[in-house]
Amino acid sequence: MVRVPWDKQAAESPKVSEVLVTMLVLRLREKARAVDGSGGDGGRDLFEYTADGELVVYEAKSFTGRMDKTRRKQVVRSLISAARHQPDHWDLLVPIDHNPAELRWFEELREEFPFVRHWRGRSWLDEKLAAHPDLVRSALQESGDYILERIAEARAERDVLLGGLPDFLDRASALNARAQEISPHYAVHTTSGADGQTAVHLVPKAAGFGGQAAIRFTGRIQFPAGDEQEAERRRRFEETMRFGGEVELSADNLAGMRLTGPAGLGLEQFSLGTVRIASPRQEVAPPLRGQIVVQRPSGIPVTSLPVVFTQKVTGLDGGTLYGRDGTGVLTVELRYNQRDQTGTLTFSFELNEVVLPQAVVPVLRMIAHSRPGHVMALTLAGSATPGVRVLITEGMAPPGWEDNEAQFWADAFDDLARLQARTGHFFPLPEDFGRQDAHDVREIHALLDGGENVLEGDTVTVDIEGAEALDELADAAASMSRITIGYAALVFALGEHQIDLGPCTEAYTTDKILNMSEARTQLTAYGHATVRMRLTRHIPPVRYLGDGPPR
User: Which of 108, 399, 528, 551 stands the most exposed, by the fewest C-beta atoms within 10 Å?
Assistant: First the structure.
């Protein structure tokens, strides 16, 4: 492990020692910013504003050995300078591991300077620098001037980023403006990929130009035979050329290919390895609206959804329109062929995290009715005849769904939406909403409609006080008795949401006490007892809202 000779460095070049500590902080703290102290740093050699908006000032010193009186006075002067900026925290970074007396002195500084926080000593610095040996090697192998230049460069780059969006935009705008001057025909944009590579995007500044302004591939694109992956790549390539889209070609597909274009772009200098061809998406203005209708074979419509197309791509034979249904849950793609006036529709179904149940119901009903034998038609606004009309040969249900599952969930979410409307308690579709929840929602509707719910179980347990009450209960049970229990509120819980349905009553008909002897023993010992009674089989227990019988 590379170690820092703090004593030697402090004696020969104390400034370099401080610079090394500064570079370490810049490496460890993403938001840290260094100030050039040559013109007076104002007490802030190194500082950062945290994500919480707190100002932290770091004081780097090259002292080694012990913190004597002279050095303590220097630290206090630094604190006085830093105090003018009203920092929230102040840390001392110095290659000295404090002894007990030095620690007491440091802690007493908080009486006058409450923002004093950490003393980061030699052990801490060595531990952190061990993970960044490149910094240590720079300090040991390069000149002090070289290191100072390095930190100046790092500070300049950080100042652009940490100075806020205006500074960043000024620099980015100037560089972008120069890039746009490269070619009169193409705008230049760059993005950074996950692998760290820079992707260059050339976008035509105007449509319809060709000739010397065109970017050309010369050579032959090939797809090795006998490879299923290459066969699929070839299909995507042909569809991209015909209807727009995107496809990525590998080096195996581009053997012998050369890239040429307008002078100034320098495309001839690129060696083709991987090429991604993508049709630029264009905004459809105004958006193209339409209606998707599912019909029975007889032509009778059974369900429909409004759709709106907002983007498109084009190719040699036609293009593709991209849009969504009115709820935003269903994504729709319409690929049209101008040569034979045909088209195909592709759907994808995706729930977002905050969708309300009523937004999902129309899409689920569309899925439920889109079964083989029915017909799907797309009518575009302003047209009296369907733009696309096809016989459905394969259902739209997601993989793994049963035949009637879409209809079940459409009804279940419809019930939940109506319950929210009846109670005025609206919330997004619960993530774990299941079949039991759907059953419970239907039972709540029955209660709100003035009906009753049949409860499960064959026994009921009640608490009584006094032997007289137990005798009366025993006499009643011998000839069947009806027990009613009232509750101040019935709360229906669904995930993290609770719906208060108001007072409710439960009624039980019993015919026998099952623990009479145990109950009398409890009464004798405690003055109260828990009585467990058997319910009459042919009269089930029920629950209803309010304190009276249901209508």
Answer: 399
